[in-house]
Amino acid sequence: MQLVTEMRAQVRRDRLIRLPEVEATTGLKKSTIYLLMKRGEFPRAVQITARCVAWPESLVLTFVQERIASARAQVGQAELLDREVSK
After folding, report:
1. Angle between the 30-39 and 19-26 helix axes, to the nearest 10 degrees?
2. Under a CB-based contact definition with an 8 Å cutoff, are residues 19 and 30 in contact?
3. What is the 3-state composition of the chain as percent helix, strand, coil, each rounded to the nearest 5?
């Protein structure tokens, strides 16, 4: 007797979060979130039902991490400029 195992692609676990949680995670308010979405600078919401949207948590967290990395890079560049000026 031979066992047959199905080979399924691994699906990364993610969840959808609603606007209040997106606001709490990002520190942004509804109007800013939708403005950034319109500009293509924030993840698009997923339509769940005719009147309900949510965001993939992984995309929101990625947005936050990119903002943190960008801020750190700017601080690092400013420190380098300060060192060069003080020489």
Report:
1. 90
2. yes
3. 55, 15, 30
pLDDT in tens, 27-74: 999 999 999 999 999 999 999 999 999 999 999 999 999 999 999 888
The CATH class for the domain spanning 16-86 reads: mainly alpha
What pTM, to 2 d.p., does this model score?
Answer: 0.75
Whole-Å CA distances, 10 to 6, 17, 71: 12, 22, 34
- Indicate the SS3 state at residue 74: helix
Q: Where are the domains of the chain?
A: 16-86
Q: What pLDDT, in 10s, does the model give residues 18-37?
A: 999 999 999 999 999 999 99
Ramachandran sector of residue 55 (left: φ over 0; alpha: ψ -120 to 50; beta: rest): beta
